[in-house]
Each structure stands twice: as C-alpha cells, then as structure tokens.
Amino acid sequence: MIISIVNQKGGVGKTTTAVNLGAALARAGHRTLLVDLDPQGNASSGLGIMEEQRLPGTYELLRGEVQPTDSIRSTAQENYHVIPANGDLAGASVELMGIDNREFRLKEALEPLKTEFSYIIIDAPPSLGLLTMNALVAAERVLIPVQCEYYALEGLGQLLQTIGLVKEHLHPNLEVLGAVLTLFDRRVKVAHDVVREVKEHFPGRVFDTIIPRNIRLAEAPSYGKNIFEYDDESQGAQTYRLFADEVHRFATELINQQTPQI
C-alpha cells in the first residue's frame, strides 16, 4: 500500500511520523520504502543519509533520469529503505510545470516498486504545490497528522478540499486513511480539547493511537536514527509500535474488502 503523509502546515510531526511509522512497519517484518519528497530532506537526514549520499534521489526520479531501483538506499534497519531528497528537489516544481502529466510523475516512477514493498510511505512537503499533488496522485491512501495545539484544524479544510479535487479530476480511488493526533502533552488542557475537537470533526476517521510530545522523538533525528534505533524503550517507540499495528490493521481490512471473493 502507498500512503502519503500530508499536511501543508509545518511543525505537525509529519516527518517524524513518516520516519518512525516506516521504521515500525519494517520492524514488524513488512518490507517498507520511505520516499522523501520534501526538499528540506529531513526524513533523509533523520535516517542517517548524508547529503553526499543522496544522488540520485527523488529529484532525478521525477525527472525520469534514473530507474526507480537506482534511487533506493538501504537504512541501518532491516526491511527499511529510502529514496532520499537532495537540494535539487527545491526546483522540481518549477521544472515540471511545462511537462505533460506532471502530476503523475511520481506515480509512474513508483509503479514498478509496488510489488517489491508491502508499504511505500511518502513524506510530502509542507505545502499544497506540485510535489504534494504528485504525492496525492501516487498514493492509495492519505494519512493526515494533526498537532494537539492551538489552530490544529487551521488549513485542514483546504487540505481536504484539495484531496477532493485530486479525487475528482486526477485519482478517483484516492481516500483518506485517517488523521493521527501528534505532539500530545497530557499536562496541557488545550491538547485534550484538540483531541475532542478533531474526533468531533472526523468521526470514525481518527486513529486511536495518539503520538506524545516526547524528548526522545525530538532527539533521534539529530543522530540520524529512527526512534527504535535511538531508544527502543522510550514512550515514543512504544507509541509508534502501537500506531504501526493500527495502520497495518486498517490496511489489511481495506485490502480484504477490495479482494474479490472466489
């Protein structure tokens, strides 16, 4: 299953979720690929992929300059691979504007890899530009991280409208997998208010697992490690294990619903 993690707001835990959800799925035995589509390259650095190791990456893949398999790097964790982002990706949106089927470039590039991986996780940039359009068109499901802070729902309406337009005009099978609440601090009243508010706005579409604000989660990327490599016993690691189990259960149910009965 291809899952794009999308929210045009920055600082919502999007890349943290992409990196550690992918790591948790890989640890559970699912061959997993993380596609870093954010020009900032934080997912790549968070997995220990240095700048000089990121050629070719998602930019060259979108440009059609390399075969998909040539852009894949192994991580320190078994079953976990990444297509990294390098600095050239920042100009990709402008360069692709004049190309036919520009919204389908990532979908076409990832198509040969669908049989190689159980999960392909796309870390989209914090915008609703052409790169994010590519992430949505390539995805089977969209995962939306929502931070447990003030203005949590700000911009979500626009994001859902964009997803609806992509579904209507480009990708009729696109659906929202769900929203995941992030950066939760149990000591802060507003965090509890946001949890309640999001569940009221998206009944039945919010994951039970809530990602805490956790210092070990914040520290891990600076060491080029996912949370399980950095501190496998931390609250952050335990929570992402639970979240990955929940995502896999959702995904399995969806696949079973789509499989014709004999």
Which percent range fits the helix content?
40-55%
- Shape, principal axes of CA atoms: globular
Arithmetic mean pLDDT: 91
- The first-to-last residue Cα distance is 22 Å
SSE topology string: EHEHHEEHHEHEHEHHHH
Just name the CATH architecture. Answer: 3-Layer(aba) Sandwich
Largest β sheet strand count, sense and barrel closure: 7 strands, mixed
CATH superfamily: P-loop containing nucleotide triphosphate hydrolases
| Percent of residues in beta strands | 5-15%
Number of helices: 11
Content-based structural category: alpha/beta
CATH topology: Rossmann fold
**Strand count:** 7
Task: Give your account of this protein's structure.
- The chain has 262 residues and is an alpha/beta fold.
- The protein has a single domain (2-244), classed as Rossmann fold, CATH 3.40.50.
- Helix content is 40%, strand content 13%.
- The protein has 11 helices and 7 strands.
- It has helices at residues 14-27, 42-46, 58-63, 92-96, 105-110, 130-138, 156-169, 189-201, 215-219, 227-230, 235-258; strands spanning 2-5, 32-36, 73-74, 80-83, 119-123, 141-147, 175-182.
- Strands 3-4-2-5-1-6-7 form a 7-stranded mixed β-sheet, with helices on both faces.
- α1 (14-27) packs across α11 (235-258).
- It is globular and about 50 Å long.
- It starts with a strand and ends with a helix.
